[in-house]
């Protein structure tokens, strides 16, 4: 589904303006298959968001190619829905209006868009809040609305950059379960960036661990634990411990010392 084919990317900085940029991602080759739930772990600044931005089409590689369904990515697409840590909703539209917006832009008629938006809002647990204004929502509700807005467009892939990390533990766990539930009902490729080894162990089919920039894929670990999983189970806890050991072995200075969840 996603193919990173010898991808390199560097950002211009004031120090190297006009010269060759030092790569953040350096000659990365990686494939993600359809329906796979992939979590990405790595120290701060190693290039996780850069990876996601390449998959989203917000960035273009300096070298190599990023492909989705066999076609080179050359910009954002509703087929690849993105949710960031601080999702922004249109403040002048209600929750329903926010979700309907993308559907209307795709040419769905008003009545149908309304029905589809209400269905997905109900699925993410906001059925009682469709007429609420974004300013009145809690952080968790805003993230739910942002997820609904993306899911309403029925993307083939979800690109999630620490989507629940700003939430309290309870809301975060609820949202993880909502996401898993929706993903199991309609499997799609998920690229999920997190700093939490527990979150990765609970959610992932596969965990990618990146080392410090230039981005180095240090570990590519399939997760074979059956679902449903239980956060406090020995298996999930053991996997989280293994992931933490991988992170602690990385030659970097900004290791997560304490899991945020
Ligand atoms: N637009 C930009 N211009 C210049 N440098 C950038 C830009 N975006 C990111 N960088 C640099 O690229 C490196 C990788 O950033 P990126 O956000 O991809 O890392 P990350 O692994 O997601 O970090 P974190 O876990 O802290 O979110 C960092 O050193 C960052 O300062």
UniProtKB/TrEMBL annotation:
The keyword Nucleotide-binding applies. It comes from the Bacteria. CDD domains: ABC_NrtD_SsuB_transporters. Keywords: ATP-binding, Nucleotide-binding, Transport. InterPro entries: AAA+_ATPase, ABC_transporter-like_ATP-bd, ABC_transporter-like_CS, ABC_transporter_ATP-bind, P-loop_NTPase. SUPFAM superfamilies: P-loop containing nucleoside triphosphate hydrolases. This is ABC transporter related. It comes from Desulfuromonas acetoxidans (strain DSM 684 / 11070).
């Amino acid at each position: 589904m996603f193919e990173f084919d010898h991808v390199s990317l560097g950002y211009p900085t004031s120090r190297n303006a006009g010269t060759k940029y030092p790569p953040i991602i350096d000659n990365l080759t990686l494939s993600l298959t359809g329906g796979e739930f992939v979590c990405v772990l790595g120290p701060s600044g190693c290039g996780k968001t850069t990876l996601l931005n390449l998959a989203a089409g917000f960035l273009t590689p300096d070298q190599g190619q990023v492909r989705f369904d066999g076609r080179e990515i050359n910009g954002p697409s509703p087929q690849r829905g993105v949710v960031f840590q601080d999702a922004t909703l249109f403040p002048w539209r209600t929750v329903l209006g926010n979700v309907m917006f993308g559907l209307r832009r795709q040419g769905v008629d008003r009545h149908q868009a309304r029905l589809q938006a209400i269905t997905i809002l109900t699925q993410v647990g906001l059925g009682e809040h469709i007429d609420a204004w974004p300013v009145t929502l809690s952080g968790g509700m805003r993230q739910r609305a942002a997820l609904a807005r993306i899911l309403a467009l029925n993307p083939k892939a979800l690109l999630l950059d620490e989507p629940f990390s700003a939430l309290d533990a309870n809301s975060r766990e609820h949202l993880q379960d909502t996401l898993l539930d929706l993903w199991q009902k309609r499997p799609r490729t998920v690229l999920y960036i997190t700093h939490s080894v527990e979150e990765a162990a609970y959610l992932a089919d596969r965990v990618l661990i990146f080392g410090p920039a230039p981005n180095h894929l240090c570990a590519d670990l399939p997760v074979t634990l059956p679902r449903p999983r239980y956060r406090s189970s020995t298996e999930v806890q053991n996997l989280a411990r293994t992931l933490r050991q991988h992170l602690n072995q990385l030659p970097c200075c900004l290791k997560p010392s304490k899991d945020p969840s």
